[in-house]
Design a protein that fits this description.
The protein is built from five helices and 13 strands. The chain is globular and about 55 Å long. The strands form two sheets. Strands 7, 8, 9, 10, 11, 12 and 13 form a seven-stranded mixed beta sheet that branches. By secondary structure, the chain is mostly beta strands.
């Protein structure tokens, strides 16, 4: 990891590479996270401590390899999100764009676990949530047969049923920007045809999963959600 010249302000700053993998809708902003080959860890990129604006996101397109300047910051959120939260400045640089899902999936393979439960170090409760302040990852991924990934809509909201490699089933909300941009407005007939195509496909699915921020209006647990799916052939 390269370091910046000492300047009296950001003496501890350093640069890492991050391949974006999780780009999700927040209320008025976007959460952007990815795998860092530099550190072998997932990183949730917070620009000067904040989530990404539409203007920020347009700088990288969809999925990309970035060089980012990490600015160490005291405090911040509690676990599990603290595990990956990484403060950066706004001078990030795009190294390459990913146009083909099979190449992105290949470069992100190190960011996957054998099962969704393993991605969160065994801390998932009731196939649904991780208790707030649990010291474990809040981001992960798993590779499944495409037929194990079944999208549906409930009360107008996009959800997905995931049949994991250990035969555990998960029913989770989809927060991925790019899946929702395509599937939310899709007419019912086309949506059903898409579902059938994927369920009968011999492709693989790289599934991104993450934990939402604590649900303070209910129980302060961090609920499981789907941050993205990349379908690809081997």
């Amino acid at each position: 990891m390269s370091r910046f010249p000492k300047n009296g302000v950001d003496d501890d700053a350093y640069q890492i590479n991050v391949i974006t993998s999780d780009i999700t809708y927040m209320k008025d902003t976007y959460c952007v996270a990815g795998w860092s080959p530099s550190t072998g860890q997932m990183k949730r990129l917070m620009i000067n401590g904040n989530h990404w604006s539409d203007k920020d996101l347009k700088k990288i397109g969809k999925y990309a390899s970035l060089n980012v300047n990490v600015i160490p910051k005291e405090g911040g959120r509690n676990y599990p999100h603290k595990t990956e939260d990484t403060n950066i400045d706004d001078n990030f640089r795009v190294v390459r764009h990913y146009e083909k899902p099979e190449i992105l999936a290949k470069d992100l393979r190190s960011a996957t676990s054998g099962t969704i439960q393993k991605a969160f170090d065994g801390n998932l409760k009731e196939q649904s949530y991780v208790p707030f302040k649990t010291q474990c990852p809040s981001l992960g991924g798993v590779i499944l047969p495409a037929g194990n990934v079944r999208f549906f809509k409930k009360d107008g909201k996009l959800r997905v049923n995931l049949l994991d490699n250990d035969k555990t089933e998960y029913d989770v909300r989809v927060t991925c920007k790019y899946l929702r941009d395509v599937l939310d407005p899709m007419p019912t007939k086309e949506f059903e045809e898409f579902k059938v195509d994927m369920e009968n496909s011999d492709k693989k699915a790289h599934v991104r999963v993450g934990l939402a921020k604590p649900y303070v209006y209910k129980d302060s647990n961090c609920y499981l959600m789907c941050n993205g799916v990349f379908f690809y052939g081997e």
